[in-house]
Amino acid sequence: MRRPVAIDNSLDASVPIDSIDCLSEPIRSALRSTGVETLFPVQATSVPLVLASHRYSWTRPRDFAVCAATGSGKTLAYLLPALQLLAACKTVALRCIIVLPVRDLAMQVHQVCLRLLAALSEGAADSDGCRRQIRCQLLVGERSLEKERHQLVRLMSDGSYRPLADLVICTPGRLADHLLNCPGLSLARLRMLIIDEADRVMAEQKQDWFGLLERLLDKPMPHPSIHSWLHAKPPHLQKLLLSATLTHNPELLQRFRLHNPLLLTATAESDKELEVSAAPGRLSEFFVQLKPSQKPLFVIHLVLGLGRSRVLCFTNSRESAHRLASLITLFADPRVTCEAVSARLPVPKRARILRRFSTGQLSVLVCSDSMARGMDLPSVDAVVCYDRPASLRTYVHRAGRTARAGRAGAAYTLLERREVLHFRRMLSAGGRQVREVRLHGSKTKRYEARYQTALNRLHEEQKAGESASEDQSKDQNKKTSMKKRKTKEDKSKEVDD
Ligand SMILES: Nc1ncnc2c1ncn2[C@@H]1O[C@H](COP(=O)(O)OP(=O)(O)OP(=O)(O)O)[C@@H](O)[C@H]1O
Predict the structure, then answer these.
(1) Global model pTM greater than 0.90
(2) What's the CATH class of domain 5-221+232-275?
(3) 112: CA distance to ligand 1 center in Å?
(4) Rounded distance, CA 454 to CA 450, Å?
(5) Can you give the residue ranges of every domain in the chain?
(6) Which GO molecular function annotations are given, in alphabetical order (predicted)?
(7) What CATH number does the domain located at 279-452 have?
(8) Atom of ligand 1 nearest to the CA of 108
């Protein structure tokens, strides 16, 4: 890869949108009406470069890899050039695909995109009103494959297919489903493939979606229209890869067959295998050494003693998440409200819990690493790595749920003594500064008795639960052996008869 372009890690280097000449006026006014007055450094660096790479339609635009801090605004860094390019196209055709590793993230980016598109079409109504609306579809498996397919293409009476989407936001698995099962889907006009959280998407390679996509790229349109004859030569596809932890390893990146790639980076330290973006400017990072039994007490102390009002806790297992949430609930202090959320919960329930946390009705949300990537929850003022993160990547994404968009935040990692050395080494390899804070007994004394009561109640509830399930399985065993005996008796009766 050529010499990387540096991205300023400080939001003080943000640039007023009016000074970004390459942005069209409709996009600028859409930004203004969604409350964006300046472009963050990652946006001010990448938007002009990406747009410039499309200046001449006869040359193939180069590809980009963007590595910038969590919460630094990478979403707009790719949405803005994509929307500007799409707005200039007169006809509907699938021209841009945005791939995100999980459904929740795709839904979040879809929301950001819809807000911008609504502002764009309002602007069009105010001016000449003749601009075509960009059509964006979300494909994450929320609806049946059939229903999603009807959002992508329409079968016409002459047997041809009419494209219905300019832009698709999807997960890799769902994209593969459509590439395999949607007969009218044509990629002949595809100009941009954007892969957010690219390192994660790359690691999973679900259903070889990228191989499928490449094979379909070369396929001609199923039923050529006059339009497709006029534009017979397929446009060049540009790829944009983004993450806060993006590898610089050319071999790994070449899996996406990048063309003349340019790396835009705000990295902490140069490492060939793993590039970790510099930490967000106003993130303070701490670790606390304590016994496992003290961990819930520390979380309670964060809210009651240190005044953190929105705390996001990451555990390594669902059991650990539910145990912590139950314990905090049994602590029964109205100032510390807590729930656990996991990817297994039905989408509406998960959305309800996230809304309660975002609106301040919950002070502590416990979750697994499925929430660590990309989720943009407003005003999280502290992240707690309740269980030790397995890797630097995991840590960076967990900690990155706070201190977003220039706000202040703190990340606390709770460690047992034997874990401290490994953790400190792991962080210093990523150029991160982490300080130790101590949990003094004098500070937690006032809620210790109540905590002990909650702990005892939790043990009792667990015991009651265990013996109930033991009874249940005994009953079950009894029923099964009775059934077996009966069938045996019936059989021997049949033989006697
Ligand atoms: N130019 C801007 N002006 C004001 N707010 C912005 C701007 N750009 C982004 N934001 C806000 O910053 C927050 C973080 O943005 P975004 O989610 O794009 O970060 P990210 O770099 O993708 O983070 P992650 O690596 O965690 O996915 C969002 O709430 C977004 O609305």
Answers:
(1) no
(2) alpha beta
(3) 10
(4) 6
(5) 5-221+232-275, 279-452
(6) ATP binding; hydrolase activity; RNA binding; RNA helicase activity
(7) 3.40.50.300
(8) 17
